[in-house]
Design a protein that fits this description.
276 residues, alpha+beta, Creatine Amidinohydrolase, five-stranded antiparallel beta sheet, 29% helix
């Protein structure tokens, strides 16, 4: 990871972060529309790549040394960093797709999870869907807290509180969110759980990628033999949701959501404001 010393962007820099967020969202929209049993994760990778290039961006995942794909596709007990390949998605799979776009030197980063239908295992599909829903809900709880927080680590408080209320789940602690801007990964760290430190001040110019990673079992992980894919040590199912969020003088704006996060934040009584 490369870190900027100053974690706060200027108003002009915030405006430059809007387009990469929009392009990232569009690429994930295309993957979401195509994902189904029978498709390979490499086919999904090509779909995301085509959209990013068509919209004038480049894949920021490909800028990570040693990584040669546009998305990470993590299936079932794979949590994050799954490499696209010949794997054919099956009914009932829980699939997390993570990607980002760089446009004019600025970055977006986002992820979603989907559970593929399987009429033969309705109870298991429902269990996996509850996991995904809880993870997504915790993401929006964290974003909502950011809108009123004085310090960044209040976000982790909100995420963990939401997960605790949702059921018996595990929040990964070895992998967390991050700042974003000129680089996809910047300071500061964004925790998905409670920590004692307060973290940096939440004030205009702060842009972060919030990304809870949640499991149905243990939070212990292993890295597979490909040296990228992070999987649960106990084989339990996992989910991953992420958005890039900018704090500005008039409020917050989710750069990787087409509506700025309006739908996701509505249950929390928060209304996002476009970056002026």
């Amino acid at each position: 990871m490369s870190f900027r010393k100053n974690i706060y962007k200027s108003p002009a820099e915030l405006r430059l972060m809007v387009e990469p967020g929009v392009v990232t969202a569009a690429s994930l929209d295309a993957v979401r529309a195509a994902i189904r049993p029978g498709i390979t994760t490499l086919e999904l990778d090509a779909i995301a790549e085509a959209v990013i290039l068509e919209r004038g961006g480049i894949s920021n995942f490909k800028l990570v040394p040693g990584y040669r794909h546009t998305i990470c596709a993590s299936v079932n007990d794979d949590v994050v960093h799954g490499i696209p390949g010949a794997r054919v998605l099956q009914p009932g799979d829980i699939v997390s797709i993570d990607n980002g776009a760089e446009v004019n030197g600025w970055n977006g980063d986002s992820a979603f999870t989907v559970v593929l239908p399987d009429e033969t295992r309705p109870d298991e599909v429902a269990r996996r869907q509850r996991l995904s829903d809880a993870t997504e809900g915790s993401l929006w709880a964290g974003i909502a807290r950011l809108s009123s927080a004085r310090h960044l680590n209040e976000v982790g408080d909100a995420i963990e509180e939401y997960i605790e209320d949702a059921g018996t789940y595990g929040i990964l602690t070895d992998y967390i969110g991050h700042g974003i801007g000129r680089s996809m990964h910047e300071a500061p760290p964004v925790f998905n759980y409670r920590v004692r430190a307060k973290g940096p001040d939440v004030r205009p110019g702060l842009v972060v990628a919030i990304e809870p990673m949640v499991t149905l079992g243990s939070i212990e992980t292993v890295v597979r033999d490909d040296d990228w894919t992070v999987a649960t040590a106990d084989g339990s199912m996992s989910a991953h949701w992420e958005h890039s969020v900018a704090v500005h003088a008039d409020g917050i704006w989710v750069t990787t959501a087409h509506d700025g996060g309006a739908a996701g934040l509505a249950p929390f009584g928060v209304t996002p404001t476009p970056i002026p």
